[in-house]
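Q: My labmate handed me this sequence with no annotations at all. I'd like to see what the chain might look like in three dimensions before we decide whether it's worth expressing. Could you predict it?
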Amino acid sequence: MSSRLPDFVDPWRMADLGKVFSGCAAIVDLPRLAEAVSDAEGEVELRLVFDRDRGKRASITGFVKADLVLECQRCLSPMSVSVESQLNIALIRSAEEAERLPEHYDPLLLDEPRIRLLDIVEDELLLSLPQVPRHKTGECCSDLNQEAEPPPADLEASGKRPNPFAILAELKQK
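A: Here is what I predict for the chain of 174 residues:
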């Protein structure tokens, strides 16, 4: 087990050796994720296990998780979101291999002999982000969640409401 992540690894060799990488990575070291969040402070916890399955396929299992600050799309205020993803990745060299994979695997097509571990971590977290982040009902400070005020009682009783387009009539006359 390693707490310091190497920048690049040979995934085929790591699978043969049964290497395990675990530890933390700073969100600022994940540029695409840092751009997608409101605050790039904090860390990502991860565990990546390289191995071979019964069919001799090289695979990566494990998890990535982080507490991220996203912008609520309802009120545009920052909000904290816990994101966690379980990895079950099969390393493949061709699209034909991907078609033959069991359904429980996500394919990772490798066209180079080495991979950057943080790219795998970053991809998993980006795929785990909510499509439209927003506070839970009742927690959002947006006016959209507030009930509209009922019209004054005197307007309802008289049945007369002011015409919202009356101002346009005045402008037209000028």
